[in-house]
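Customer ticket, subject: "Can you confirm the structure for Regulatory protein YycH domain-containing protein?"

Message body: Hello, I'm evaluating your service for our small team and ran a test protein. I'd like someone to confirm that this is what the system normally returns, since I don't have a reference to compare against.
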Amino acid sequence: MRNNRSVQGITLNVILTITILISIVLTAFVFMSIGQQQNVSSSNQQDQQSVTAFRPTNYIINDKYGTQNMVMHADNQQIKTMRGYLTSADIKNPHQKKVSNATIIAAISKKQSAVYRYPDVVPIDYFNARYNQNIAAIKGFNFDYFVLPLDKSNLAYFINTQTKTMVTVSLSKINTTKMWEVAEKLPKSLTVNFKSLNHRVRLNFPKNIKLPVYSYLVNHRDPTTYVSTLLGTTNQLTTTTDGNKVIYTNKFSDQQVTYDPDLDTVTFKDNKADGKLDKTYAARLNIGFSQINLLQLNLTDTRFYESRNDGKNVTYRTFVEGMPVYYQSESGAIHMTLDNHGNLISTYSLNELGVPVPNNQKEVTLPKTSDILSRLRQAGVKETDYYFVTPGYEWMVNKDSRAAVNMRPTWMIETSSGWQSVDDYLKSRANQ
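Agent reply: Thanks for trying us out. I re-ran your input and got the following:
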């Protein structure tokens, strides 16, 4: 009897031990699964944010006769329909080659085509994410134009106007006839074409440009949101002041966030001394964008705008009807700089567009591109003195209410010292 009871006891202990072990394994598996789901969710969130921030800034439709018009005031459903056709397409067989500016202009000007314009070159990975593609053979390729002929050619073109490189791809599983029917109905009010300026193909406005003045209420973000998200909890921080500026420093990492109430900006600064700068353009963009994604900012009106020094200096701007906004802060909506150790310095404007409000201001007529270039030449400005000229909107505080802002159209010029309105640039030159 005692032996039987002993055996039964041992058996029960073994069974209990096995049960506990199984429970531990299952619990660990559950937590691992949850962690994996969280990682996937985070990745998906970043993909969705990148789809928003790195989308085309302009859609240009080339009609059957070769006239090119920029799409204005298109509603979301029209753009979603166009995107749906492209998402369903099978894009493959990339062929890359060096080309001349004349070849680029010919490709961008193809009749019966849709042209997707980005303000600066972006990695093709962002195109893949937005349009559900996997063009892996040219994974390291960057481009600023995608040309989609909506005829029977079954070809499309990715173009990098910086490096004068074009990638031709084949198309299948896309209903170009139906897509062209949608493209023809898109609201188009600005005639454009393309010219070579400073040895690079640029968007050109051959006619005077009529643009409305917009007014919006301004939303002001809380600077402490940036502090808690980027630096950590209060007990990890020290707070100092420099004039009106408030400087928050993480005691362990030495990272800083500076709030400047005069400029309505916050600036994050990393301080690693032994880090390394990522080598690829895509990796450098992703470093800054990962921080934007961490902050969970609303990027509905904000898009990637330009890169300098192979991704070491990156600017995001607010866009209104496909036109960039200037003077929102000294450096755009978001400006990011990477140093040679991979340290990130990022400045965020705390002001963002809220709901639109009515105004009684008349449309503004801006001169065509050739008139602006002629004006610059007459003032003694050489092509080598600037990078680019473009129409855009000035962020102007409403005189009647600081809670509102007006968006007034103007011509802008980019030089080595940054962006200015053409009027201000010429005035400053005259005063030198």
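A couple of notes from the result: Residues 246 and 259 are 5 Å apart (CA to CA). The first helix runs from residue 2 to 53. Feel free to reply with more questions.
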